Amino acid sequence: MGKKIKLGILGGGGDSLIGVLHRVASSMFDKFEVVGGVFNTDINESLKFAEELGIGTDRIYANLDDLIEQENRLPEEDRIQVVSVLTPNFLHFPMAKQLVEGGFHVICEKPMTTTLEEAKILKEASDKAGKVFAVTYTYTGYPMVRQMREMITSGKLGKIQKIDVQYYQGWINPIIHDKEQRNTIWRLDPEKSGISCCIGDIGTHAYDMIEYVTGMEVKKILADLNYLYEDNAMDIDGTVLLRFEDQIKGVLRASQIATGEENNFTVKVYGDKAGIKWEQENPNYLYLLEEDKPLQVLKPGHAYNSDFSLSGTKLPPGHPEGIFDSMGNIYHGVAKAILGEEAFDGEYPTITDGLRGMNFIEKAVESHKNGNVWTSIDD
Q1: Quick one: signal sequence residues (predicted)?
Q2: Which residue of 12, 140, 270, 323 could cross-link 162, Cys pair, CB 3.0 to 4.6 Å?
Q3: Number of H helices and number of E strands within the chain?
Q4: Mind listing the pLDDT tens digit for each residue in 4-19?
């Protein structure tokens, strides 16, 4: 086996769930090696965390400026090649832009930026640098999501006529009703989170999923968002009507105040021949609905699935695969792109997906604030 791709990480230290997810995902397929980064704004905490992970401390830096400067002094074959940006939302844009201009590939958490204008600037910088740029819309890596995409593309469902996606969580419910608490978390702080909480956090996952599995672009949206309290500047719930071309319509529902819900992300697509639905909390089941036929349940690892689905399946049928595997498939797609290897279309979400995600977030807020009116999504 050749040398592994050298990976640096920004953020994700301590008990960060997203940090664990990315580190485990990067270790799959034996393509990456975490060699350094900036895990914390306090370098002593970063050094301590690196020691806990068993990573050499010689490439743990005080800040991003030091990382870029010191790494670019090393021989090219020894440098960090790609950096994962796992910091709060407001840091995504400046860090990612500095990285691509510094000669690094980037894997960035979503939302990619806090404004559409930032996303456009970042895409221009990335295109100019010619580097791989991935945005971690994690759920696109599930084998049965990839199977859903292939079935829709192949015409199994016929002409698409209805799309319904729901992403319900309840985690913010105990916080939002306490004035003191809701003013202390960063996700409800526009300076750190951007213009949206719910739509920017989970609604963008749902939006990207719709375009990913259908291959269609949303053309117009009408959003009705819920802020619940007048002193709360960030949406924590929302419903968005969707219009595609050819009279195709859909609905996107996202909530962080759906009491008792954990991570209820459900995708349903209906054509004139069949319907299909997938639930993130039961990700190994893809339901196929056809007129006058029994319900069919498709599962990963079987030969009846597409080559794309099977390429992201690591275990035999009957062995559950989950979110770590999904993120691992995205990292594998990034590795193929960096190494110039042959890959399936859609193996990782690109900077264009990140740009469209920011476009959706901004237009959803705009639609709501303008009185719940239809608003066009830019091409």
Answers
A1: none
A2: 270
A3: 14, 14
A4: 999 999 999 988 889 9
